[in-house]
Amino acid sequence: MKINRTNPIINYKSVEEVKYRELFKVTEKFHSTMDISSVLAEIIQTLQKVFPQYEYCLLMSNDHNNSDDLPIKELEYNSENLTAISSYVNGTVEIENDGDCLHLYAPLKGKQGVYGVLQVQTDAPAPIKNEEIDFIRLLANTAGSALENAKLYQQSRKLIDDLRFINETSYELNATSSLKETIQFLVAKVTSFFSASAIGFIFLEKEEVEVLAESSDFFHEDIAKVFIGYIYEVIQVEKDGIFIGDTQQLKVEMSCPYGTIMAVPMTAGEAMKGIVIAVAAEPYSFTFDMFKLFQSIIHRSTLAIFNSMLREKLEKMVVTDHLTQLFARDYLNDEIELSMQADHEGTFILMDLDDFKHINDTYGHQVGDEVLIQVANLIKDHLRLTDIGARWGGEELAVYLPNVELAIGIQIAQRLREIISKSTKPKVTVTCGISHWVYGYKDEVKYLFKRADTALYEAKRAGKNRIAVKEIQK
Q1: Which of 121, 307, 414, 422 has its CA 20 to 30 A from that of 469?
Q2: A single Gene Ontology molecular function, please (predicted)?
């Protein structure tokens, strides 16, 4: 009888063939994907197919989120499993036999580092064959390279997205002129990109804290005052932005219903002019990379914000009287011209402070200026947002009431006259000349002014602290 001694070898070769065919297939799949979860899934599926008798687990660093129900655990660096840590740190295959079962640890190693450890567990303490170890090592190395490529690809995509975000934000900021629009744009952009729960823009002026109106509601609540104060103190000490991944770990009493905080100072030279704070509901909702990007955006935005503030201050200086903070006469003139084109009617009040020279001579010009400021503040406090108070010149002030009929305008002038007489110190009275225009009659701004001036002159001649009206000749 002839014995066939080649069958076992043929079987052995066929088994090896199957294993390395699977390795070839999985390698092809690794090269065709840049998705980390897909790479990890292929590792487990291939091993379960080739060595179904073993149990597998992937020990990954904490930068991987398992959303595919794969046997993945976080690699804990303070773990008692020193063999797994040794495999990760040294990049070598390690075997541990505790008497009941055997564990093999193979590092998922790329050219730039180790990205995790593959754990293989047997039910019995019997050793794993050398050829099986070689296969597992080869698969782990191949997977490590694939993971590295996928991570580098994702990092490059993230960098591209970040740069696009920075460029788009910078472009929009350069195209935005007003402070309100600038802050509204940044709040919307940061909220969307970082999935922030709330954004606060806080300005610091002579140690006074001002929360801009465009900030999220939380920053306008009373509980936010302590929170903002704490952030301000920390930044003052650190001289840099702060990132708090989990507010529950703070050893201070601070009313903050949010889990994660990013805060970046807005500086001009060496001086801190404000703070931008972003918060999210859950701990570690923001990553440190997100914090660095947030810093970059705020640093780039600070110049645009300060430019908007400076532009608005300059615009206000042009249209505002420096002493009284009422509008300038040219601005009043332009606004009445626009009103005559758009509105149905309007009332103009020209008022003169009675015996103002006597106040200057008696109390001095500084007190005279203070009286002017008092009268201007009373006017501002008793006008609508649509009304205009202006410095006409010297001790003369003016009020324009768009879409206000003459009878109502007279009542408003009378009320202002009485309030000024009662509220100023030293006491001063005013005499008013009133004119009015209405749609349908040919009229101009200069004629409106002339009628009010004539009425004021007539009121002065008749006695002080009174009102006179000069209507349009129909």
Answers
A1: 422
A2: diguanylate cyclase activity
Asked if residue 161 is part of any domain, the answer here is: no
pTM: 0.58
Q: Are residues 272 and 378 in the same domain?
A: no
Q: Please check whether residue 166 lies inside any domain of the structure.
A: no
Q: How many domains does the chain have?
A: 3
- Note whether 180 and 268 are same-domain residues: yes
Q: Residues 366, 438: contact at Cβ < 8 Å?
A: no
With a CB cutoff of 8 Å and minimum separation 6, the contacts of 463 are none
Do 142 and 221 lie in one domain? The reply is no
pLDDT at 68: 63
Domain of residue 349, CATH code = 3.30.70.270
Q: Tell me, yes or no, whether 290 and 351 share the same domain.
A: no
Contact 467, 410 (CB under 8 A): yes
Q: How far is CA 90 from CA 56, 83, 113, 134, in A?
A: 21, 10, 10, 18
Q: State the pLDDT confidence band at 2, using cuts at 50, 70 and 90.
A: very low
- Mark whether 427 and 357 lie in a shared domain: yes
Q: Are 441 and 425 in contact (CB under 8 A)?
A: no
**pLDDT beyond 50 at 9:** no
Cβ burial of 373 (10 Å; 0-12, 13-18, 19+) is middle
Query: Alpha carbon of 53 to those of 27, 56, 128: distances in Å?
Result: 22, 10, 11
Task: Judge if 464 and 335 occupy the same domain.
Answer: yes
**In which residue are the tokens 């990379």 written?**
289
Domain membership flag for residue 323: no
Please name every residue paired with 349 in a beta bridge, in sequence order, or none if there are none.
Answer: 399, 434
Q: What is the DSSP letter of 38?
A: H
From CA 322, how far away is CA 146, in angstroms rounded? Answer: 68
Last residue of a domain, one of 311, 346, 377: 311
CATH number of the domain encompassing residue 117: 3.30.450.40
**Joined tokens for residue 395:** 């001790």
Got the DSSP string for 381-392? HTS-TT-EEEEE
Cα angle: 161, vertex 162, 167; to 5 degrees: 100
**Residue 378 confidence (pLDDT):** 96
Residue 29: strand, helix, or coil: helix
Q: Per residue in 90-146, pLDDT tens? A: 989 998 887 778 889 999 988 888 888 999 988 776 678 888 888 888 888 888 888
Mean pLDDT within 330-350: 94
Q: What residue numbers bound the domain in which 424 lies? A: 329-469
Alpha carbon distance 165, 171 (integer Å): 10
